[in-house]
Amino acid sequence: MDTQRTLFRKLDHLVTGDAAGTVASAVDILVEGGRISAIGPALARDSAIEEVDCSGLVAYPGLVNTHHHFFQAAVRNLPGLDWTNLTLMQWLDTIYPLFARLDEECIYQASLVSLADLVKHGCTTAFDHQYNFNSNMGSRVVDRQFEAAALLGVRFHAGRGCNTLPLDQGSTIPDAMRETTDAFLADCERLIEAWHDPAAGSMTQVVIAPCQPVNSLPETFPEAAALARRHGVQLHTHLAEGENATMLQRHGMRSLDWCEKNDFIGPDVWLAHGWEFTPEEIKRLSASDTGLSHCPAPVFLVGAEITNLPAMIDTGLRVGLGVDGQASNDSSNLAECIRLAYLLQCLNARNNPLPAPQPYDYLRMASSGGATCLGRRDIGELAVGKAADFFCADLNGLEYAGAAAGLTSLPAKVGFSGPAAMTVINGRIVWRNGEFPGLDEGLLRHTADEVFNSRLGAVLGPLR
Ligand SMILES: [Zn+2]
Predict the structure, then answer these.
(1) Dist. CA 261–CA 246, nearest whole Å
(2) Do 223 and 341 share a domain, yes or no?
(3) Residues 149 and 30 in one domain
(4) 130 CA to middle of ligand 1, Å?
(5) Residue ranges of the chain with pLDDT lower than 50?
């Protein structure tokens, strides 16, 4: 059991992330065994307690990322591969053959750099939706993602994805990336046994996450749901991101109806995207207590309908934020997505009869909202009894001049212009003053690029 005691002293301010928007000033945080045991001014000191000077800093609740595809770090920012000059089908035809060349070492390196990027910018719990299991992969892809998260000290929820529909039956995924439902379910079961920890304070959880209905055989989703419920783990998939026309053509129903029919909604499910949901569908989702990961970057990139967050908030839907994979974001920074999500809704505020969320609501989506999507009550707010997950910002830089009075709205309206000053996960400092303690950031970055180039250099050639 972790018995480490740490006193984070003299924070200028602390944004709790609670519903009331409570901000405390001139406070300390005492952490014992990875949990917050006290928050208050000038807490008692003891020679047995390690101390960390936080003067000049503002603490925010650790961010919780609810949707990502780490492997796509290997193919980001490719010149010529832009959403602005390609149709979706052209984009898929270019990107999927690249995905199919990646191997286990690539996934490991991509997971390391994506997770590290998230941590640098205040994320403390990360979910990844790994659905690339091509014929180059070994059998320990997700295990190695857990190893990457452990190296960095990040709380990690691994989504074990899959694609089971053959290309000649309408899939958009090359057959080299296809698995059988049985192989998928067997690996899910193995991973749950090896890594899933449901206890409070858990650092590792497994999520069963078939990629999307349009690339799955009919039995994949209901069998995945049944397996998840036998083991008490969460379910996740992409939904309402442009596939409804295909679903109507293929199954005679919209994708939410199809998910209802296949038991793939409920309090143990959260869905990525959802920009196609109608107000009536949002009500049904909310009534079923299904969660939603809103990823603003792909809405901008693919020119999708603006996600109806006002209706989602109005019905009490659980909403978290996600960066999405770097093939539809090119970045892995959740703090940036708080501002993107805010700006996106401002664009549509006059067209929606319901009020837009308030700026502070976006910080809460990225913290406590994300925690509810992942089914966790022990993270998401800076409060006594919660896991000691937070990040600190130094707002003394000129980019915050005149803006630091509104601490709760700052993440959405101003945005954080650089890395966090410090990120703490489970009471441990995992990022501080520009360094990952015990790790060489330059080496992480160059090793990843070497591996990516060795697998993709021949096909990308001058694109790199
Ligand atoms: Zn995605």
Answers:
(1) 17
(2) yes
(3) no
(4) 9
(5) 462
